[in-house]
Design goal:
6 helices, Arp2/3 complex 21 kDa subunit ARPC3, mainly alpha, 74% helix
Length: 159
Amino acid sequence: MILIGATLVQSTISPFIKINGVHPDLVLVLVIGWVTLQGWQEGIIWGLIGGLSLDFISAAPFGIFSLAILLVTLLTASAHQLNLGSSIVLPLVLTFPLSFLFNGVVLLILALLGRSIFWGTALTNVLTPVAIFNTGVMLLVFPLLYLLNRWLNPQRLSF
């Protein structure tokens, strides 16, 4: 439900909060954050729900966002295996390169399907700015995900 709501927010509200023509990938940020908290099992579910939600509202060929976000989910899960706890450091470190990868994979698939992509312009005007924007959004989103995780998975006190 969270990811479907995030998809609706991303598609309706985030275009109004553009910076230099780019808006944040809220669904991607949520998936990266949740995988760093919960690991690959829940991450795959979140990635599938998020990717399919984006695919359903997008005019791009179906499956592009699901494929890209599942790749990001698997890479995030690999980093999660380092067992660094639930610190904000890991999602912050991962968000920039994984945002770059996510949007790069989407553009690459579109290029392979025959769409014209001007890679120099995409690099400077889309990939880099959105990766920076997503990293900033992670600063706001991860504490909320952390609280949600603590609420859904309370820790027992031991004496």
